[in-house]
Amino acid sequence: MTFGIKRTHLASEITPALDGSQVTLLGWLHEKRDLGGLRFLLIRDRSGLVQAVAAKKEVSPELWEELSSFKRESVLAVKGIAKASPQAPGGAEVRIREVLLISPSEDPPIDVVGKTSADLDTRLDNRIVDLRRVEPQAIFRIQSTVASAIRSYLRENGFIEVFTPKIIATATEGGASLFSVFYYDRIAYLSQSPQLYKEQLTSAFERVFEIAPAFRAEESDTQRHLSEITMVDAEAAFMDYQDVMSLLDGLVERVVKAVNEENRRELRALGREALEVKVPIPRITYDEAVSILDRKGVEHEKDADFGTVQLKALSEELRDFYFITDWPTAARPFYAKPLEGRPERCESFDLMYGWIELASGATRVNDGKLLKERMSSQGLNPDSFKTHLKWFNYGMPPHSGFGLGLARLLMVLTGKDNIREVVMFPRDKRRLEP
Ligand code: AMO
To answer: Is 373 in the pocket of ligand 1 (CB under 6 A)?
Structure first.
């Protein structure tokens, strides 16, 4: 340790069993209280909080004075003796012998202790300090569990993790939401999804997945859209969209189980009960969804994607997780495979939770000629997809996959309505910093 002080215990390890032992804590000054002859420092580290207490008669006059000068969020080393104390949180505290100020803090720009702190914009402006609060801590610890559960689940199912370029030459998900960048002497784009790469890779590895950033130049300012997102993409040879939905059943089930097991404390901090998902997740077709809307007298455009009004109406009947399948071909990207004998519908799905879309996926067109036709019928120029189309001449297996918005899933798991709460450093039309 370069600064010469070694931590002996984490905050959570200070228990009555340690009574009488010498301990050294390293952490942040969360809160302090002055009670006449006693000064309390609440020390926070990655494991939680512990109370350190100095008695005026037990410490030097210099230290006694210094203790009141420390500002909250300063980094401290506290040496002392662990002591069982029924009144202390956790049943034990540290009686202070020495304190070293490792890194001082100014008065923090937002309150780290309070449950309801500043408004979201102020919190995001001061995100690094905001992230020390209990709620964001819980959210991002849950996110880490989710990412790890997804990785192990997909790996167990034969998928390998891949990393594809994010600076690309052509759009995959439509031109409207594309960011362009100066790329030496020409224009390139930020990837909206690894769609084409992951499809191509099924011809080399069969099953691939990626957890990576995707960029969308979203014009609308909503609670569920950002310009930069983390997307979970998976693609598998010899699967169809029904198989992929079953894969997602298992994935959601695994994630929920992992969070319930590993994040009990975090769920409690967010005021959440244990989470539940019943699998298989119900699947309804687009046409069935339309019947529900008709029955409820909710207007909708023929063969079009649903808007918020339609999704909110559907979610009155379909509360938790559900799939909407067999979408109109015209409303889906060129790579979704039309249903055999019914080309106006395609082998595609959205995974929903209430009215929030979490993922979408499809069986893909794996015939190069048909793919070209589909591009043209969607007003795209097949010439700009030459390198992609080339690989369809060298043994492209039938394949299917999904793309899932990590933050959307996290919103559902943590019960947050605004996606900005569950993304550490959100990017939207207004925000490019911090
Ligand atoms: P799609 O465009 O539906 O599909 O994106 C997949 C999932 O990503 C999330 N998402 C977003 N989340 C927040 N802000 C945004 N601006 C945003 N855009 C998308 C959603 C959405 O369901 N290539 C296909 C997937 C596939 O077919 O495999 C695709 O990108 O949760």
So the answer is: no
Specify the pLDDT at position 269: 95
Instruction: Count CA within 13 A, CB hemisphere, residue 151.
Output: 11
At 56-80, the pLDDT tens digits run 999 999 999 999 999 999 999 999 9
Residue of 323, 408, 412 best suited for mutating to test ligand 1, as the one with most atoms within 8 Å of CB = 408
Residue nearest to atom 13 of ligand 1 (CA): 225
CA dihedral 371, 374, 378, 380 (to 10 degrees): 30
Which residues are CB-neighbours of 101 under 8 A, at least 6 positions away? 66, 70, 74, 75, 76
Query: Does residue 245 have its Cβ closer than 6 Å to ligand 1?
Result: no
- Cβ(426) to ligand 1 under 6 A? no
Catalytic center residues: 216, 218, 224-225, 357, 360, 408
Distance separating alpha carbons of residues 309 and 306, to the nearest angstrom: 8
Q: How far apart (Å, rounded) are the C-alpha atoms in residues 304 and 286?
A: 10
Q: Are strands 180-183 and 186-190 parallel, antiparallel or unpaired?
A: antiparallel
* CA dihedral sign of residues 161, 165, 166, 172: negative
Q: Is the CB of 335 under 6 A from ligand 1?
A: no
Structural domains in the chain?
11-103 (2.40.50.140), 129-422 (3.30.930.10)
Q: Which regions in the chain score pLDDT beneath 70?
A: 1-3, 115-117
pLDDT in tens, 302-328: 999 999 999 999 999 998 999 999 999
pLDDT of residue 116: 61
Using CA atoms, how far residue 406 sits from 94, 230, 272, 358, 362, in Å, is 40, 6, 19, 8, 18
- What residue's CA is closest to ligand 1, atom 2? 173
Measuring from atom 8 of ligand 1, which residue has the nearest CA? 405
Ligand 1 nearest-atom number relative to CA 335: 27
pTM for this predicted structure: 0.96
